[in-house]
């Protein structure tokens, strides 16, 4: 019989998690995704603007723009749920970069959704969510312009993107721009502590510090790194985090900077060679170097000069010159800057 050959239903199927993941650890980024705008951490100005919209209704067309993992998709989804409640299923059209969003989709799918009749309480509108909108072609964006105006009585648009300048100006002018920025270390730590308590994660304080360092203001990365370290080692310590995240160890890079500052150029170079031999790419090294120098306690003049040189080297690496020679040249420049500064004093 057809029904008896079906696999038994999963014992528990958490919301929005595909059935093939049941029995495995649910990704914590999903498990702990805030469902209310008020629960989104950080970016207080942006979040309070959205909270006012959630409270008063009448959502304007919105563009949420900012770096990855800061809560843009989360905020839009939460806002749509708060505004529309049970009508969400019918009254929200969500399209992201994994959907085809060429000009035909705008002409057909989005337009048809905008024309569709859905009975909603007074003051509520249907919502079209265009996530990762910066990957839409400009042709598709152009096609949106008039649709956004014609159906503004019944349908509102919420766009999320990383780089707002990739949204064409006419669309920007039709939307209220809400900017998100990277989350602060305290904000990430606060959220991590909630997850650590809920999941009973064993940790050392320097482990959480390492997670915050590697995440660099990206909450998604922080939660993913926490989960990866926890499931790999069952203990979140600095050492384990750097094993999982596979970034150059900040202490190693810090020693390199210290050697440069103490005039030990050869030691600094051999530190760099070790990192290079471990397989880290020049981009990994220079990104960590930048963050270490930014937070290193040294004279301001030196720090600014160091950062300037790191910036130039980063540019050359991005242009394709990512060799050990390039990074050694950077160390030589930093040493020279330090010598000049010393001579002036
Ligand atoms: N501000 C935040 N407060 C609480 N959790 C957050 C926040 N930002 C991100 N997260 C966590 O990270 C996950 C990913 O966040 P989200 O999808 O909102 O990022 P995004 O800003 O849309 O990033 P992208 O630009 O890559 O699409 C969420 O599921 C949530 O668990
Ligand atoms: Mg997103």
Topology:
Layout: H1 28-31, H2 44-56, E1 62-65, H3 72-84, H4 88-91, E2 92-95, H5 103-115, E3 126-130, H6 138-150, E4 155-161, H7 169-174, E5 176-179, H8 185-199, H9 205-215, H10 219-233, H11 238-245, H12 250-261, H13 265-277, H14 282-295, H15 300-318, H16 324-344
Parallel strand pairs: 1-4, 1-5, 2-3, 3-4
Adenosine-5'-triphosphate is lined by residues 29-30, 32-34, 40-42, 68-74, 160, 162, 183, 191, 219-220, 223.
Output the CATH topology of the largest domain. Answer: Rossmann fold
**Shape label:** elongated
Mean pLDDT rating: 88
Q: Please trace the helix and strand order, writing H or E for each element.
A: HHEHHEHEHEHEHHHHHHHHH
Report the portion of residues in β strands: 5-15%
Domain AAA+ ATPase: 58-190
Subcellular location: Nucleus
Pfam families: AAA, Rep_fac_C
Keywords: ATP-binding, DNA replication, Nucleotide-binding, Nucleus
Describe this structure in words.
Helix 8 (185-199) packs across helix 9 (205-215). The chain has 3 domains: 28-179, P-loop containing nucleotide triphosphate hydrolases (Rossmann fold); 185-245, Helicase, Ruva Protein, domain 3, CATH 1.10.8; 250-344, Up-down Bundle (Zinc Finger, Delta Prime, domain 3), CATH 1.20.272.10. A 5-stranded parallel beta sheet has the order 2-3-4-1-5, sandwiched between helices. 33% of the residues are buried. The chain has 345 residues and is α/β, with parallel strands linked by helices. The chain has 16 helices and 5 strands. Adenosine-5'-triphosphate binds at residues 29-30, 32-34, 40-42, 68-74, 160, 162, 183, 191, 219-220, 223. The site of adenosine-5'-triphosphate has 22 residues, from helix 1, helix 3 and helix 10.
